[in-house]
Amino acid sequence: xxxxxxxxxxxxxxxxxxxxxxxxxxxxxxxxxxxxxxxxxxxxxxxxxxxxxxxxxxxxxxxxxxxxxxxxxxxxxxxxxxxxxxxxxxxxxxxxxxxxxxxxxxxxxxxxxxxxxxxxxxxxxxxxxxxxxxxxxxxxxxxxxxxxxxxxxxxxxxxxxxxxxxxxxxxxxxxxxxxxxxxxxxxxxxxxxxxxxxxxxxxxxxxxxxxxxxxxxxxxxxxxxxxxxxxxxxxxxxxxxxxxxxxxxxxxxxxxxxxxxxxxxxxxxxxxxxxxxxxxxxxxxxxxxxxxxxxxxxxxxxxxxxxxxxxxxxxxx
Amino acid sequence: xxxxxxxxxxxxxxxxxxxxxxxxxxxxxxxxxxxxxxxxxxxxxxxxxxxxxxxxxxxxxxxxxxxxxxxxxxxxxxxxxxxxxxxxxxxxxxxxxxxxxxxxxxxxxxxxxxxxxxxxxxxxxxxxxxxxxxxxxxxxxxxxxxxxxxxxxxxxxxxxxxxxxxxxxxxxxxxxxxxxxxxxxxxxxxxxxxxxxxxxxxxxxxxxxxxxxxxxxxxxxxxxxxxxxxxx
Lengths: 317, 232
Prior knowledge:
The complex is a heterodimer of chains A (317) and B (232).
Chain A: H1 2-9, H2 12-37, H3 44-65, H4 68-89, H5 97-115, H6 119-139, H7 147-172, H8 184-209, H9 224-240, H10 249-277, H11 292-313
Chain B: H1 6-15, H2 26-47, E1 50-52, E2 64-67, H3 73-79, E3 90-95, H4 96-99, H5 103-113, E4 116-118, H6 129-138, E5 142-145, H7 163-169, E6 176-182, H8 184-187, E7 201-204, H9 214-230
Parallel strand pairs in B: 1-7, 2-5, 2-6, 3-4, 3-5
Antiparallel strand pairs in B: 6-7
């Protein structure tokens, strides 16, 4: 009883840290138990994934908790790395060089709008100004063959990997949701925990019970059993961390449903992109997981939905 | 012509004189600092350089590293393969007419890359490029050579010049390490000054001991680099 009261007296962010620590310990124990129960089977990939989760959780937590500036640098770097992975696989033309330099410069700029809290600029910079300026820059290269493809592919990547992800960063800088003790950091922790747990749980449900494939032509690993089981269990888990949000119980469940379904769409879209590029993973930066994009694909989709839900229904000061 | 295996190579290479014991110079220290503080972080965090086959790089003794050429990033990235304290023993062979075109460029390339400048045109007995390279090897240095002789488009590998064969034919006990550099020409093509951070890759092949017919040496090297290009 004493332990429970002690934990409840901790700050919400610390409570969240303990919860994540608990989940990671359970994951490591399960992997160790699996290895012991079936010594013949190869769990190297699974073990590598769990190890990487420890590192990612530690880095993410540090980046989100320590200071706003550090968080923004971290999110900007995430966008940068994701965009790097995407353009490396694109079939770019030599004539795209300057437009691409331009594009990469736009990444830190997008995060500058976040840092100075200029919402109006943050929300139109990439969808409007970049969308108009990028083709104009491409025109200067005087190469019309493949013009439309270049202009649209680069802009598409910017929208998802930079604009989409930057919503998490903007949310993080929110000091306080009106009439509550909730701040942006807590909401980002909620979003990331629910979406990532849903990814992991969909994988676990799919591996154990998965029979009926949802989109076999795009991703043979996505099954109805995994989808439904993963989303339902992530929704239940989200109730555990309702203390990070201004939501009621029903609202928490509905928001979790919204962001996990959005996250699923993100994962499916990125699977289709990988199919199109003819690659298995976007990169090899994260052992067992692939590239940055293989990990943040669901967040790219979930973040804008979550952001605008909160902004509309729980406006901040 | 013969080509040896990696293990043979190692024995032969270590059998040769050890690393040169010349004194440290201020230039060596400045280069180490530049690499530790600028070049390596740039390559890791901006370019996201990946290396395949690092085990093929001889740990001791001299070698000649042979690679395709499409970008100014080529030399920079190859030099990040080495320990900082070994950098001073590595000499990238570079065109004097380009890299010593003025005092500033000359100082820059010497400090950052410790280039071995050679003449591409107007060759006389004094500036004979092969002689320069031989002297550097005699002094205990290892060389980085781009046998295409100039930067290409990055899409295809140009024909290798014959100079490398003349050099290698007389050095049957110095291992030649083939390397393929991917995407460098996309990141920083000829004529551009600001790189686009495409992920770049270095693929190293097994060290080879080459001797005999020059034409065959060229073919062997071209094939080795091309074979690395095909890996994906």
